[in-house]
Specification:
Blueprint (H helix, E strand, L loop, with lengths): L51 H53 L5 H24 L7 H18 L15 H21 L26 H13 L8 H14 L4 H9 L4 E2 L1 H24 L11 H16 L1 H13 L3 E2 L10
Antiparallel strand pairs: 1-2
Helix pairs in contact: 1-2, 2-4, 2-8, 3-4, 3-6, 5-6, 8-9, 8-10
Length: 355
């Protein structure tokens, strides 16, 4: 990285109710006049068999009590889910602030490290979801394969050279550590989906790129190969090393499309319901991309070719912007789900479209 750039290295309800209103609440079962409740068969006492007031009031109070318990149960479950969401994200933001005040020195390039932390956080959530539930439902293996390539190629560049590292102290070792852990988390989740929990993997929904005779499971090639060609042809020269520059550029370009199979899979789900931890995983990746996009808006001019062309910088901005556009709907429904502590339900679409 140049010595003058902004990141230059050394510059169910509880009340027994069902869908039809609840047991003991329908007319004819203890509320309406029937056997023993008609007024035409008095007894020898003051009352008679047909005294509906006492039984009706008692049963109505039972129904009202069940409704109250049901509402309280729903509120309790929603509150617990909301508390878990708040605690999880609060922990992440607290760790981010700690790193910022201890290692960044207030430098703007910390946004790169912050974005990397968000990605690592997202894949950590995915591991919790996968191994705690022992299910791979709702997870796209193709997205995991692409992210494994992203972290691998980025590490091959930043371990050997310093041109694309953050300028602050986090670029000394923390950024490398975060990317290594992200690769480990991604590979672990991929192993879980393809190994012990393979029987729960929804292969019939993870169909992105499987067309024109492409063997099942290889749809990610439709993204990985064309992006590699673009990276070879258009890449910056901050490391002054062809392989290192191409590797870093390939990771950046590929990350912009790596979530596409996951978003495509969301659309294929008939119910449109996304598990909350899976939604947190995707949201964390999107948040990390938003942070990096904010950084490159002010730093794209550093991504120049050996001839001085700023085309790589423009392409980097465009690819990241398009990824964020594709996620706009997701961000909105994710916000509403977290706010109301309800499942995330995405609208159905007929094409690739916006999720």
């Amino acid at each position: 990285m140049s010595s003058e750039g902004p990141y230059a290295r050394y510059a169910a309800p509880a009340g027994g109710q069902d869908a039809y209103g609840g047991y003991g609440n329908a007319p004819g079962y203890g509320n309406a006049p029937g056997y023993g409740q008609t007024q035409g068969y008095p007894t020898g006492g003051d009352g008679g068999y047909g005294q509906p007031a006492a039984g009706g009031d008692y049963q109505q109070s039972q129904t009202d009590g069940g409704d109250d318990k049901s509402k309280k149960g729903k509120k309790s479950i929603a509150l617990q889910a909301l508390n878990k969401n708040v605690l999880m994200w609060s922990g992440f933001f607290s760790a981010s602030l700690l790193v910022y005040y201890t290692l960044s020195g207030g430098d703007f390039s910390f946004l790169m490290t912050y974005g990397a932390m968000s990605r690592m956080f997202g894949f950590a959530i995915l591991n919790v979801k996968t191994f705690k539930s022992q299910r791979a439902t709702g997870i796209s293996i193709k997205t995991l394969q692409l992210y494994c390539l992203v972290f691998f190629f980025r590490l091959t560049s930043i371990i050997r050279h310093e041109g694309y590292l953050p300028y602050d102290k986090s670029g000394d070792w923390l950024y490398h550590f975060i990317e290594i852990m992200a690769l480990i988390f991604t590979a672990s989740a991929l192993w879980g989906c393809m190994g012990p929990f393979k029987q729960t993997y929804q292969q019939d929904m993870d169909k992105f790129g499987e067309m024109s005779g492409m063997p099942p499971g290889l749809g990610a090639v439709f993204l990985a190969v064309p992006v590699l060609v673009v990276a070879i042809l258009i890449h910056p020269n901050l490391n002054s090393d062809f392989l290192s520059d191409v590797a870093w550029t390939y990771a950046m370009y590929l990350e912009s499309v790596a979530l596409v199979p996951q978003l495509y899979m969301f659309q294929k789900q008939a119910s449109g319901v996304v598990e909350l931890l899976t939604a947190h995983f995707v949201a964390a990746l999107g948040f990390g991309r938003l942070l990096e996009f904010a950084f490159w808006v002010y730093s794209y001019h550093e991504l120049a070719t050996a001839a001085g062309s700023k085309l790589p910088g423009y392409l980097a901005l465009f690819s990241q912007f398009m990824q964020l556009v594709l996620m706009l709907d997701f961000f909105w429904y994710y916000y509403m789900a977290v706010k109301n502590a309800t499942p995330l339900v995405l609208p159905s679409h007929t094409g690739m479209g916006i999720v």
